[in-house]
Amino acid sequence: MKKIAFVFTQGPHGTSAGREGLDALLATSALTEDIGVFFMADGVFQLMPAQQPEKILARNYIATFGVLSLYDVDQCFVCEDSLKSRGLSAGHKWVLDVEPLSAAEIRGRLASFDVVMTF
Fold first, then answer.
1. Which of 22, 47, 66, 97 is packed most tightly, with the most Cβ within 10 A?
2. H/E run at residue 22
3. pLDDT at 116 over 60
4. Are strands 99-101 and 75-79 parallel, antiparallel or unpaired?
């Protein structure tokens, strides 16, 4: 079975990329257990708790990231460099347990996947 990586690079609001990526991730988890999830660039905002998308008439899907472990998705990483450049810290309380990695470490991990899907 192929190793599949999902890379979230866009913020949760303004586009449907995050929601579509999460839907694809959940569907793929039914087919394979070898999945990696990476949050980079503005994608780190997908991890922020207590968002209120209903105030901008958007759908709230962020909390769904928190149930990925129920789908046996446990390889979850966040880019430390992206966090720092956005004034966030790796010690923040996220909606999902993620392992902070440098951009170079993320590139190394991504190289081990057969398929990389970016949202």
1. 47
2. helix 17-29
3. yes
4. parallel
